[in-house]
Queue: 3 jobs
Job 1
Amino acid sequence: MSAPAVEISGLNKWFGPHHVLRDVSLGLGAGEKLVLCGPSGSGKSTLIRCIIGLESFQEGSVTLCGRRLDGTAAALRDVRAMSGMVFQSFNLFPHLTVLENLTIGPVHGRGMARAAAAERARELLARVRLSDQAAKYPGQLSGGQAQRVAIARTLMLAPRVLLFDEPTSALDPEMVHEVLEVMEELAAQGQSMIVVTHEMGFARRVADLVVFMDAGEIVEATDPESFFAAPRSPRAAEFVAQISHGD
Amino acid sequence: MSVTSFATPGTGAAPRPAPEAEGRAAGTLRRLFRSPLSGALTLVIALVLVAVAWPLLRWAVIDAVWYAPDPAACRAEGAGACWAVIVEKHRVILFGAFPYEQQWRGAVIVALWLGWALLTAPRLLPLAVRLGGWVVVFLVSLVLMRGGILGLAPVGTDLWGGLPLTFLIFGGTVAGGLPLAVALALGRRSDWPVISFLCAAFVECVRGFPLLVVLFFAALILPLFLPPELTIDKLLRAEIGMIVFFAAYAAEAVRGGLQALPDGQEEAAKALGMSYWLRLRKVVLPQAIAVALPALFNDIIRAFKNTTFFSILGLFDVLGATKAALQDPDWVRYGLEGYLFVFLLYFLICTGLSLYGRSIERDNLRRLRRAGE
Ligand SMILES: Nc1ncnc2c1ncn2[C@@H]1O[C@H](COP(=O)(O)OP(=O)(O)OP(=O)(O)O)[C@@H](O)[C@H]1O
Ligand SMILES: [Mg+2]
């Protein structure tokens, strides 16, 4: 068994006086998929942003593929080289074409040859079924297309861990499906990932573990079937009742 | 109660072209003569305009004296504008006190600047070529002005003047001021309180002074504090003053652009593992500067007009040189014509700059706009 993809132990974080992550410990096995859910403000975004070093924290440790975030720039660089993140608001670079959005990091940051980067980019765009959009600017894409470009962009450097922060919540319902489909394909190929989402269907089909957070704490961690069928804590039960309401 | 709202289903008619819109000229004409009163007003205003424009046209064109080796011709009965003064004095106006037989060097500089500006305005060449070209143009201009090498007679900066000097001051201000402005704007947003305080203090102080004070300080007071061995040319000192003044304003424009950038852009670039400088160069600055562009062009155009302040320090830019040329007692009464010429020159250049700025803006907009909008 290889080293866990992500290992978090005793993580505590405060925003000013506000204690937003309380003694969070969790691990992600290599090749496994973890779905993180919980009510708004429970600290899901903050938690996964800590993993990739977009937020600092006061106590505890975060390790990605054996590399511990110890506050040094070198650790940060290594961790970001091994991971990728997809945001709710896509965050594509609007002044660059779709193709340039994919190649800019590897070409300028990693010294990948332009031609090789462009070839890999076209390959990935084909994988997310956007081969015909390479020359467009992000402003000319639909939300679902933009999010698939964002996913392709994070895949350029073959990250060992992918983090998704509500990748479908900014999308119109008819586009949610095309993004989830791409994510499920990735999952089937053995990509390790942590996904913050309220898409129950996706969690059921893909998750190895569902983690429920509330008020900065992990309240429940179990397999999807038992979580959605019979949540143990009253808070989780209330949450499940709420998100299944629309289905 | 019965429902009065209603909707009539369509009959499945084929789509047809939109009815022809009224032409712009026809529309204007219709609005100008909408009612008898409006028509009368239009006629009265048109008459007044003609009454004003006609004498002006006679003075400026029909009765004008275009060429006269002797100012007496301008004093003839019924003579209009004396444009002959410009023909007579154009060398001083354009090149100031630069040695007469060397003034071809100034002409080459003006041709280089205008030529490269026109050539690069359509932005067909890549940015690096355009900028590199400007650096070459600037350096060649400096060599031509100074001389001392390549068999060119040396000319001291105290003799520099006219349009070449205006171009050099302006080019130096923008080239030196923009990087400084970006540095100040970034510094002001720095996480280190000392740096952000220093940058903010610098910007606020410089903005708190009139340009004249900044120039006087740089040209006249600064040398008193410098060690006597360190003599910096007066022109260079004044130029530094210009750069600092320009940068303080442009820094605020750039900062506005930086603030307009959503946090997500930096975060996405970080998550992709891009380093600080790479993020700055490829993600942050291109977007921030695109947003800051209208404000930046405001400052750039102002920097061009501010070159006229140099005449106060005894350095003769175009306006200063014109003023000096018009001291000639033979021609002194035709100052109006001389100044009108210089105003036209400034107006053309500033309008060119402003059109260029707007065309870049349009380019950016077209790229960032969503499809179909
Ligand atoms: N930059 C910040 N400064 C101060 N407080 C913050 C900041 N970011 C988040 N918080 C607070 O931290 C808590 C957790 O926020 P977080 O964004 O992680 O929640 P979340 O579970 O992702 O919620 P949502 O489902 O709405 O995205 C919230 O109470 C929020 O107000
Ligand atoms: Mg969130």
Job 2
Amino acid sequence: MKFFVLAYKNLKRRKSRSFLTIGGVAVAVAVLVCLLGFNAGYQEALTSDVDKMGYQVLVTAKGCPYEAATRVLKGEAGLKFIDEDIYKQIISDPDIDKITPLLVQLVYDPEKSDGKGGFDSYSGIERSYMELKPNVKLKSGEWFSSDDADEVILGYDKAESIQKKLQKTVGDKISIPGEDTNLVIVGIFEKTASLEDGDFFLPLKTAQRIFEIEGKLTSIGIKLKQIDRLQAFEERLYPIASIQVISMSQVKGTILNLVNSAKILIMSVAFIAIFVAIIGVINTILMSVFERTQEIGIMKAIGASKLDIFKLIWIETLIICTLGGIFGSIIAIFGGNFTELLVRKVMPYAPGGRLLLITPELLLFSFFGVIIIGIISGLYPAFRAASMRPIEVIRSGE
Amino acid sequence: MKDFAIRANKLKKIYSSEFEKIVALKEIDVEIKKGEFVTIMGPSGAGKTTFLNLVGCLDRPTSGKLDILGCDPAKSNEEKLCRIRIEKIGFVFEDFFLISSLNSLENVQLPLIFARNFKNNTNPETLLKRVGLDHRLTHFPNELSGGELQRVAVARALVNNPQILLADEPTGNLDTKNAQGLFDLFRELNREEGLTIVVATHNIRLGHSTDRIIHLNDGKIEQDERLVK
Ligand SMILES: Nc1ncnc2c1ncn2[C@@H]1O[C@H](COP(=O)(O)OP(=O)(O)OP(=O)(O)O)[C@@H](O)[C@H]1O
Ligand SMILES: [Mg+2]
């Protein structure tokens, strides 16, 4: 028999109490892992979202640039329109590498989400769209037959849901809720792991015609030949009163700032959870030390040294913290999806990729963190137990 | 000199609290030979437990000299006292003091955990067999009778092959039959292993089955009675 077995047997004796304490530690660890995982994941997801967008610069109607940017990132409409003439005007700018016009429109579909209703996003695009977006490729079918054909290309997820709900795929016809026109599905995009996977794509002219906004765009996506030419480019567009130029890296920074302030709040919650867990561990161990005053005295009487008792109590603390760390990591891994859902609800802008990045390093870090916390919180109870005097204890038992 | 297991010279113990000083032992002189089976008797408060605790290195004397198998507890640090307790002394208590979360066998194994590099021990199963409990190895304390509990405690006290066995009213919680059985076991260990045994008890009849009765009263030795068989 070893110290470890002895410590374990003692914890087993007070099953529910040990279990609750382990639970407290597990929750603290899970919160910590999710939080740190979110920290890394959000940044990565946002960066990849912005990169996937393909634009470095976005031209929109004047308004709040960040609102505009997040709306475009989210594939939402509701933007003010700009004239197509502006597109024609800037297309020949020497600093532009690639440029594409966009018209995004939201349409209410009462059938969406199993009859609950919801908005679908329809994007009017031109061929240049595919040049700007490095990872938008046709999975099946082909590009529109002409630039004002009544045709539609589906995002990957949208294609799947239509296939499932209406058994329709390339070659079939679908309708836009509230409009008379029927559209032929001509193609399906590959998965991009961004929100655009859920969109409908029409030829720009077709979109302008169906939604009766001819000659208008919601935004223009631009990739510059060299990103450091951004300022000069911006200055040249400055005279055009009705538009603004938004740099996506700026937007990214602003969103991250916003998220950071939210993170500080969550961090403090995590610290409270950890603090409460430490108090819980100390309390549990201290209580079991006091309850076992007699037992500890007996062990001393039969030859246990101060160090032995210290070790015994300390190992108990470590077992609690280790088990808490293991369960906490498991909760974090499996509960991560739930957290992700929650985060998507409360965050100002949630990117399309996975928000929670739980890496082995992160788990290891949290795990050793909790062990260190265990080592520290076990010190006091172990010290109290070690300094008990055997004769007093034995006398109190008589 | 080597003959003595325990030798006390003007051994004194004072318990002092905030309000009063209690002199529990008043300069006692006593010598107990190796292989002796000694009873300590006396009214409650006479100092029996105090004496056993001093001999068992659970406490330190206030003054006087104490020699336990050549070691002086007064001159030993905590760690040394611990070693003496582990290597030389076995303790049996009135309330058994077994660990309730461990079964008989594990209770007997317990001192081995603390013994570290001290390897002069007896196999716990052999010991339990010796005290007649080989059919109760995996029973927990709450599943054993008083007599059985005390025999587990004796086995535990013997696992490190001590030279001295100290027992403080070991029969206090036992019926007459079990009490007699325990003393028979003590006598057997004393005869066969040459174990030095010091027992505090109120039971005159049991006391008379040992080699010698030291009568304590009010912290002093009133009478030192050697029994001839
Ligand atoms: N830790 C202590 N603090 C203060 N006084 C003590 C302490 N231990 C013992 N005493 C006192 O010392 C005296 C001797 O006590 P001791 O326990 O040695 O008696 P005893 O002979 O074992 O009695 P009993 O037969 O009741 O067990 C008593 O008056 C007791 O109250
Ligand atoms: Mg007593």
Job 3
Amino acid sequence: MSKASLEATVDPEKVQGWITKIGSDTSAAVPLLQAIQSEYGYLPRKAMNLVLEGTEINASQLFGVATFYAQFRLDPVGRHMIKVCHGTACHVQGADRLNTSLRHALGIENPKEDTASNGSYTIENVACIGCCSLAPVMLIDGEAFPNLKGADAQRHLVKHAKSKGEILPGQTGEGDDQSADEKEK
Amino acid sequence: MSGDMVITMGEGTCGIAAGAPEVTKLLKERFPEATFKAVGCIGMCHLEVMVEIATGGKSWLWGNVNKKNLPKIVRFHRGQGDLPEAMLIRSSDTRETERSQYLTRQTRIALRNVGELNPTSMEQFRARDGYSAIEKVIKGGMTPEQVIDEVRIAAIRGRGGAGFPTAVKWGFARGAQGEPKYLVCNGDEGDPGAFMDRSLLEGDPHSVIEGMLIAAYAIGASKGYAYIRAEYPLALKHFAIAMDDARKAGFLGHNILGSNFSFDIKIKEGAGAFVCGEETALLASIEGQRGMPRIRPPFPAIQGVFSKPTIINNVETLANIPWILKNGGAAYARIGTEKSRGTKVFALAGAIKRGGLVEVPMGMTIRQVLEEIGGGSASGRPLKAVQLGGPSGGCIPESLFDTIIDYDAINATGAIMGSGGMVVMDSKSCMVDLARFFLEFTQIESCGKCTFCRIGTLRMKELLTKICDGSGTLEDIATLEELAERVKDASLCGLGQTAPNPVLTTLKYFREEYLAHVTDKRCPGGVCKGLITHTILQDKCTGCSICDRYCPVNAITGELKKPNTWVIDQKICINCGMCVEVCNPDAILAA
Ligand SMILES: Cc1cc2nc3c(=O)[nH]c(=O)nc-3n(C[C@H](O)[C@H](O)[C@H](O)COP(=O)(O)O)c2cc1C
Ligand code: SF4
Ligand code: SF4
Ligand code: SF4
Ligand code: FES
Ligand code: FES
């Protein structure tokens, strides 16, 4: 599957359902976008237009809000989401190396890109997720992995990909699991 | 024999991240008759997964439990094996251990229930006197003024960072005109390295709700918002369950406890903007707008959400309130120092042996927190500083570790108490890199309204990046200092006003590190990528080739199993450090 096909198919009835449930006045802007994003992983243009048609919210407010808050994204995402914590505790304990080794495994070379070319995984940096004593931490599809080194992050990714039948387009240190485990001890 | 056995699992965010669900599953298979209890964060997050097993009138608290070592405690509890000392935190038989000191040195008021009860059990909350403070207030016929007086006697200052006296703020809103009034709980917790409010919201949501009820009663608010950041799914979940249960029990809604006081709460999920923790930005965000601060006055107490009188209190402030009403303001005021009463919760993280949540009386020294509770350095390398207050705060060097925890004493160092993030640095961390990290954070998070905050922080970040890359000059340091003052002066809200603090305090206490980067082109902590090189120590290399497989840019070449053939091409190497991490014989030197 290529990246272009990651565009979500938007069901207008669903969007209408959220509007009915959450509200159509201007204060509903943030929760409506949150509902859309949690369904599609990003804000498809079509869903945004439906919100503009069905509520009192105008385009300047809606896009203003969508681009202001870090939670929202306008680009499609891969089938799985990796969130790497870059809070203070994770930063001082080497969170950068998690990105380096994950991106290497996913074959993402362009620093501006965040999704693997086969649409398998997207990497996002997030602020503190609240378990700083276990830093550095990452989440794959919401599951947390604590106390990571760069190589550990890659190993968890390899395992995850195997279990989901995903192919990692980049290069991994696979095959030396054992010796890297030993280093940990 | 496991019939009377009660197994208590820590199932806070850290516990789950460390693997509590798997351990619970295995324990249920081993001890099917036991009763299982899930509690919130006890605060000893470094020892997760934690399991407490009580049976036959005795109890044992085990730490760092995992799939591999679990059989040891299972054998012990079946009477088939020795006590696994290494995993024991404390038991009803042992005296204090070095590890249990982590808990005994604390004074837990805000955290009184966290880790002690199932956060979503109304029954357990009631059994620990939950909602008895609001009952005392309403059924005991206390007037709102009497409630405010009690809080004034306690002399508690807001725990969200600014330290403004809570009773004074409530007094403003009590007297303000306009209906309805609003009470907002600020659970945005934006400091990226702190999780006090997360633990409270997910580990004891009812206490926060009870604090909101009392505050609402005092100021005459009928509507409430709980603004909780989206990055805390468990907190959002537990808070929503607790709200439902409180409504069913008649603590939220119309005519609470048969009085004419009505109050209800709505949850607003934060969408990931640090500036939304600032009160006027938070109000804009609740109204569905971009979270941009506005000029005060009018203060929110006079004109807040939807232009109605609004009080915004921090989660931890609110969690203290029921205790104060129940035990009396005077009891609270007896703890702490002259100008800073009570306790403060800190999230201890970084280069510390025992990280987690700690609540200590004001007046304790930073050194006591780090050594007696935190157990000192994790790596054995000397500690060199702590960073307090996150991006708005500053660092305190080791030479000032005897500073006491007190708003004024900490301000005098140039740092701030902040909301409670305490990140510990040892000799292998770089203070310039830390300052750069925070400036990058505030620059991204700046809402863009004020020129100096928007562009000044960007220029500061660029200068710091230049210094970290090794191309900085002495003049850059001077420019940095000048910009810092300007950004402080010309910013509207706390974000811009405090953004330069990390730079100013690192320059004040660690100027020599800046100079090393600029004049010697050296990073003393060995962190800044532009100032270190990676080389292979030929006498240690075994030729295993692991480094080659992990190097993201293929900078390493050599012949498999042939030592003395492996080299790093410095032109290609990006100094990411992956190779150091994976090399077994420690044959790669970063310097
Ligand atoms: C940039 C910025 C971020 C803030 N973030 C928070 C926050 O995450 N949580 C919080 O309680 N207060 C935060 N504050 C402080 C609030 O503006 C406000 O002072 C506080 O919520 C008041 O509650 P308190 O009096 O109980 O401390 C922040 C302030 C600024 C300027
Ligand atoms: S100081 Fe910064 S964050 Fe605050 S209002 Fe000005 S630009 Fe926005
Ligand atoms: S530091 Fe990174 S880039 Fe350089 S050789 Fe090691 S793994 Fe490769
Ligand atoms: S990992 Fe270490 S021992 Fe193995 S080839 Fe690389 S430098 Fe040599
Ligand atoms: S800094 Fe990463 S979890 Fe807090
Ligand atoms: S989450 Fe369990 S001790 Fe912190």
